[in-house]
Amino acid sequence: MMSTIVSLKRKRVFADPLPAIIHTNRWVEFHEVGMEHIFSTWKLSAKVFWKGNIRQHQGRSYLRLILKDEEGTKMEVVAYDDETMRFDGLLVQGQEYEFSRVGFLPTWEDDMRYMFRLHSDFYVYLSTHTMLNAQTSIFGFPQIPRTFMSFQDVYNVDEFIFQVYLICLYL
Question: What are the tens digits of pLDDT across the range 88-124?
């Protein structure tokens, strides 16, 4: 028995590595989002302004939301496939949440770009890594503020509270 070995001469081709998603613990507000925010994850605090129903597009299920941050800026949110059921059960319209490990993607590169109504350049992508905490504060502020007030602002708040006490005592 004779076996023949065929030698295939092929040139190896290497593809560029995919950019790594960097998990960060930095906060971002919607008006700050730019191209530098795409390949990393971020934290944000926002209120669910509008929540849509789960829909299908080309065999993929998706859930659309509109979030509103502390400054009143709105941004659209999309969760795909298995994440639709997870976030549909967790998120309630009108509630405030702290989102961790969210990603931002440009709206012009998505195959469903026709569905975006706010005409912003980016949207929030909720992935399997995304975590969220419901706000328990009745005031709607994060438990740990991202920035602290200046001394002058704190002094003015104390003055305002003192004036309210005086008005109440006067009445």
Answer: 999 999 999 999 999 998 888 766 666 777 778 899 9
Residue pair 96/46 in contact by the 8 Å Cβ criterion: yes
* Count of alpha carbons within 13 angstroms of residue 69, beta-carbon side: 18
Q: Of 42, 104, 40, whose CA–CA distance to 77 is shortest?
A: 104
Domains of the chain, each with CATH number or no CATH = 22-134 (2.40.50.140)
Residue ranges with strand state E in 58-120: 60-69, 74-80, 96-106
Residues 87, 129: Cα–Cα separation, whole Å? 12
Token pair belonging to 62: 């998706």
Low-confidence ranges of the chain (pLDDT < 70): 1-24, 110-114, 136-171
Q: What count of other Cβ atoms lies within 10 Å of the Cβ of residue 52?
A: 16
Q: Whole-model pTM above 0.70?
A: no
State the Cα–Cα distance between residues 75 and 68, nearest whole angstrom. 7
Q: Distance between CA atoms of 1 and 99, rounded to whole angstroms?
A: 68
Pairing outcome for strands 55-57 and 74-80: unpaired
